[in-house]
Prior knowledge:
Blueprint: E1 30-35, E2 40-45, E3 58-62, E4 64-66, E5 70-75, E6 81-91, E7 96-102, E8 112-115, E9 120-127, E10 132-138, H1 143-153, H2 168-173, E11 181-184, H3 196-204, E12 208-214, E13 237-241, H4 243-254, E14 259-262, H5 264-271, E15 283-287, E16 302-306, H6 313-322, H7 324-336, E17 347-350
Parallel strand pairs: 1-17, 3-12, 3-14, 4-11, 14-16
Antiparallel strand pairs: 1-2, 5-6, 5-8, 6-7, 7-10, 8-9, 9-10, 12-13, 13-15, 16-17
Helix pairs in contact: 6-7
Amino acid sequence: MERMKLSHFKYELPNELIAEFPTEQRDESRLMVIDRAKKTIEHKTFKNFIDYFGEGDTLAMNNTKVFPARLYGQKEKTGAKIEVFLLRELNKEQMLWDVLVDPARKIRVGNKLYFGDDELVAEVVDNTTSRGRTVRFFFEGSQEDFKRVLFGLGSTPLPKYIKRDSEEIDESRYQTIYAKVDGAVAAPTAGLHFSREVMKRLELNGVNMAEVTLHTGLGTFRSIEVEDLSKHKMDAEFYMVNNQAVETINTALDAGKRICSIGTTSMRAVESSVSAYGRLKEGQGWTNLFVYPPFEFSIANSMLTNFHLPKSSLIIMVCAFGGYDLIMKAYEEAIKEKYRFYSYGDAMLII
C-alpha cells in the first residue's frame, strides 16, 4: 500500500452542512453505520445505537468536562477589548495559566488585563508562541472561590467554525451528560449524542461503561502543515486510565466482546495505555500519540465518532480504524445524504 499523505484526506464540504446548533434532543441525530467486514453503509438514527451492543460489551467513554475557557476583558490604561482563551492551569498555588490571546500583537509581557467589573486581574508573565502567553491571576480568596469567579466570567469555548457566539443552550449541550473531570477546552463530541434514556437502555442490555479521561486541547483542531504524516507532531493532552476502566475493558477483551471507543479522544486515551501484552493498563500523563494509517489498534474493535474536518488528525484516525477507501466513500455518501458535520453534527458507528 502506498504511504498515506495529508492530501489523501481532503474532501469538499458544502458550508451549509456544518451544524451550527445541536439537534433538539441529544439522541435524535442521524447515525451512519459502517460494517468493515461486509463493507456496507447503513443510515439509522442515534437511538438505533443500542441495537449493536449487548451483554458484556463495553463502551470506553471520555468523562472530561469542558470548562468555560473563553474570557473577554480589557487592557489596563487603554481599555482595549481583548480575548483570553484559557488552555491549561500550570500552577495552582501561583494561579499561572497557559492562554491564547487576541489581538496578540497588542498583549505584551508586563501588561495587566482586567475581567468583569475588575473582579479578576491578570498579568502577562511570558510569551509561549505567537498567540500564546503565560498569565498570572491575582485573587484574594480560596482556590475554590477563584475557580468559581474565573469560570463564572468565562463562556463556552465553541469551535471557531461555529459562526456564532455561545448561547445558554451551549452550556449544557456542548458537554456530555457524563462529564465529570474539569479540564477540556473542546467537547469529546461523539459523546454528545448520549441521552439518559439511551444510557439506561444500554445498561438494561448488560452493556458496561468504562470511563477514561482525556482533556481535549486546541491541538485537536490545529491544522496539519506537513504532507508526510510521519513528520507531524501532535500537541500533548493529559489522559488518565484508572484501574476500574482497566478491569472492565480487559474483561470484555478476554471474552471477545465488542469494545466501542466513544470518540477519537477515548481512542487516544486507551491506545496510549497499552501493555506489552496488548491489554489496557493503568496510566496517566501526557500523550502526543498521532494515529494514522497503517496503525495496529490494540483495545477497541468498534468506534463511534462524528464527521470531521478535511485533513484533520481526526479524519485521519477514523480512516486508520475504518479503512481509507470505506471511510472516504462514507463521507461522500454523508455529503450526498446531507448529514450534519462537525461538533454538533451527526454520528458514525464503525463496527
